[in-house]
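ugh finaly. both done.
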Amino acid sequence: MFCNTCGSQVNDGSHFCPNCGAALQAPGAVAPRQPLAQPKDAPPSGMPRSRQSQGRAQKPKDPYQPQIKQLRLQIKQLRLDLQQLNQQIGTARIQYQESAPFLPWGLRRLDRMVEAGRLWNPAQKRQQLQQEIKQLEQQLLSLQQQGRLWNPAQKRQQLQQEIKQLEQQLLSLQQQQLQWQQQQ
């Protein structure tokens, strides 16, 4: 299979092109044969990939970044909406508190009930906004974690660390086995 964006060969089942970072799950994103037409700035197809970049390797684009940016913007907008709503609720409460001392005792209780009734919808809206922000932040965190795992350099480094740990464990087990054999 080949990427329709850059023409490089990709493994079956891959989600993103290892060369250009294009999403491969969309319809028409992969082709059974290498595309015939290459972009103007593409080097000749016979040249190895390492030489195509002419000394400067192109870093694959993180496919999660556009989604992460969009989520950050949505969260920012919701936080601004929440801040505005909190200001409206605070202003309404101040108005009721300022007028309460001038009301007779019996009317103060009624005034509090009116205040609670008027603030019911804004309070519900505030709770809804807080839940939406929490859900979007969880999605953002998940995408950031996926993006970290997608990064080939970080993944390679993580795998190298795991290999070192496994090699150390193997060496330790071999030493224990040798000691055990010597005791027998």
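ok and the 2nd:
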Amino acid sequence: MLIGCNYTAFIIILLCAIPFNRVHAQQNNYFITTQPLSVEDGLASREIFCGVQDKLGFLWFGTRNGLNRYDGEKFLLFSRQHNHMQENKVLQLAVDDRNRLFIGYGLSGYSLFPSGHIDVMDAVTQKVNSLTETFPDLPFKESEVFTIANEGTDKLAIITVHPARFWYYSSKTGFRLRYTMKDQPMESVRQFGFQDASFWHGYAHLPGHVNYEITPDTAYRLVNSADTMWAGLTLIGGKGLMPYVASFKDHLRGYCILDSPGHFHWLADPKPFTDSSEMAPISSPTDTARLMKSKDGIYSYTRQGFVKLLDSSEVSGYKDRIFTTSFFDGQGSRWLFSEGAIKVKLRPRHFHTYFTKQQQHIEGNNQARGIYADDKGKVYANIWNRLFIQDSNKTTEANSLGILYALLKFNGKIIAGEYRLDIYNQEKNCLSRVGHSGLGGEIWSIIPLSDSILLLGGEHMDSKV
């Protein structure tokens, strides 16, 4: 659908209408859409601990009451009672290069620690076997698996305990030991939990009293301190991953990127998180844009800074909600789990808006009838009887006696058309009328014919000045 000339917000080019549940008005660089799912839609439980997408595009959700498969419309339930699974509380999910689901179970009650049981399900035939039955030559005990997750390639990332070791697995290479954490005490594993580990394309963050940062080329140790907590991995410029640090004292100071051992730079302005007690990372093994829960909503980090995905007012009982984890599907949507599933789609706006009602509260009738932008990024717009100017983040406006239409820059001056011509004086920030009033109508267009002649077009007129 094309938009005609009588549009109601100034934008360089207007897009067609895009359907969505809601958009955060303050997130001017993004469209944000959400879709909630709960037991009313077919989920086995409101408690969802994990999710993954298989090679055929089906989504799998691990719940307290079994494993759900979602095809975009309806759910199927797999459980201990009907599918020979070892347990029902599914705490971890991963899918390998042969489209087999690795299903990790959790201890009963409210614990988020693994039970020591792992099943492997063929996502097509839905046949289930234990990890030990699937791999008779397993190089560790099934009961020693603490974390199993996808890591963005065809490999799975696996952490085992007794001793703490980090493995990769694929059907091509089998189980390959990547690193042994010799000085990671068991009490550290129980306190921090390797479910807070994160993995991506050969990089890994393994948390504890001693943090292990794994890269494709090396591995090194980082120690938490009284005012610093190593928090995970984040995607940098779409090119690579490095661990980032959350720095605390009485308040959160911000986030740093560790480029190499001992070298840092700041990641983002921590304005959403002014009080560290109100900030909590939402764990996810493969979500490299780690989500943060603040007192006023859920934030994600992008290259433009923090973007609010959900406002606290949109989630009932937000203050006491526990968000267990999140993951990305193949369509770029993020799934966030807390008393059901919330699908969040973050799409960049390809056009920048200026002088909308949310951005300026001076002119309610914000029809933009003339626009001009110079090569330095300064933007001008005729909106009703005002000329708006935006230079960087500063917006100014100048009044006219008539409704403004055409706009251009001529001989270094901004000229606007109404029933006469108006010239903008930048020093005084005002519009001054020039010319005579007998032009015959509103001036809708102005075209320079030479350095001294303008061609004016409008209703019932065609004049040179």
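summary for the 2nd one i guess: Confidence is low (pLDDT under 50) at residues 1-26, 235-243, 247-253.
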